[in-house]
Design brief:
With about 325 residues, the protein is of the alpha/beta class. It contains 13 helices and seven strands. Bound molecules: 2-acetamido-2-deoxy-beta-D-glucopyranose (NAG). It comes from Chloropicon roscoffensis.
């Protein structure tokens, strides 16, 4: 009886398996047909209506950026220019360091450096489409594409060498220091520097570079949240001490990203000592492109909002004629 049962069971089992294989075959045919129909259907679909998960969706997203309000640039970099920028002596091997930091292959790294298609930081901006000042700040905090955009941000060594002197101008706060190019250049010259930036990926990379180059003793990292700000994200009061204790502040290509930038400038002036300098380069969007009529201005390069840099700096600051691309302001008196 046991034997019979086992035999019966085997038979059922084998029969079950055979019919399962048969069903599976049919299932495979059905699946193949479905895939074929899907592929054919997809080819018929207009570009904009394709599956959002298709690789092209990200490129469509970028095409939208071509018509987006007020975003300058947008160009990809040619391979020739990427290598030219990466070989710039003022950034001293930063691209190699970034490649090591990311662990990406040559091709994966290259397409990001060339800002190809979906890898352009302006496409990333469009994708998140920040709708308020706080979302804009969160975009800058969480951006990964800015790593590759900012790593080739050359250092204006002529101006820094001329205006930043040991002791008189230390510590130098690099406000929104990107991948750390300025901070690392200055620390390599032996100056005490403070790095501040809200980009989490950029800051992690800047820390990596500081350690890799053995500059920990010269570079201090400032955070957008401190005990003083109640550990709330505050990119103004976090890094700016407002007590005249800083020797100088660098703000290269940052103020034009900040709506109501003059509020930051005022706190910067409060933060440096008399005789200290603020070195800035701020290519604002044109007044015509901008919208400052009550709505948050959330394009990449915002406008001045009608307030000139001279007004923003106020009577305590005097503009030195640096005769260069960057503006140098010196603090003449305290409040
Ligand atoms: C490299 O960049 C410059 C601008 O810096 C541009 O004028 C030039 O056409 C670019 N060259 C190539 C080969 O892309």
């Amino acid at each position: 009886m046991n034997h019979g049962m086992r035999k019966n069971g085997d038979k059922n089992g084998r029969g079950g398996l055979l019919s399962w294989v048969g069903k599976t075959k049919n299932l495979i045919y059905v699946l193949l047909s479905v895939v074929l129909v899907a592929v054919l259907a997809r080819v018929q679909l207009p570009r904009g209506q394709r599956d959002a998960r298709s690789p092209e969706a990200a490129d469509i997203c970028r095409e939208v950026t071509l018509t987006a309000r007020g975003q300058g640039g947008r160009q990809e970099l040619s391979a020739w220019n990427v290598s030219r920028y990466c070989e710039d002596i003022t950034i001293d091997g930063a691209c190699e360091e970034l490649k090591d930091f990311t662990g990406l292959t040559d091709d994966e790294f290259q397409k990001r450096m060339e800002r190809r298609g979906r890898f352009h930081f302006e496409g990333e901006h469009m994708f998140w489409n920040p709708g308020s000042k706080t979302e804009l700040a969160w975009y800058y905090s969480s951006s990964v594409d800015y790593l590759f955009g900012n790593v080739v941000h050359r250092v204006n060594t002529g101006v820094l060498d001329r205006f930043l002197k040991h002791e008189t101008h230390e510590p130098v706060l690099d406000y929104s220091g990107g991948t750390g190019n300025n901070a690392i250049y200055l620390a390599k010259k032996g100056l005490r520097v403070q790095y501040f930036g809200i980009g989490m990926a950029e800051k992690a990379f800047a820390r990596y570079r500081v350690e890799r180059n053995g500059l920990q003793d010269l570079v201090e990292f400032k955070e957008p949240y401190t005990r003083r700000t109640g550990y709330t994200f505050d990119p103004i009061n976090g890094p700016l001490p407002q007590d005249g204790s800083l020797g100088s502040i660098l703000a290269t290509d940052v103020l034009e990203h900040i709506p109501n930038y003059h509020k930051v400038v005022e706190k910067m002036v409060d933060s440096i000592r008399v005789g200290g300098v603020i070195i800035e380069h701020s290519p604002f969007g044109s007044e015509q492109e901008s919208s400052d009529q009550g709505e948050p201005d959330v394009r990449i390069h915002v406008s001045t909002g009608g307030i000139s840099m001279e007004e923003a700096m106020g009577p305590r600051m005097k503009k030195l004629n640096s005769g260069s691309y960057m503006n140098v302001w010196v603090k003449m008196m305290s409040k």
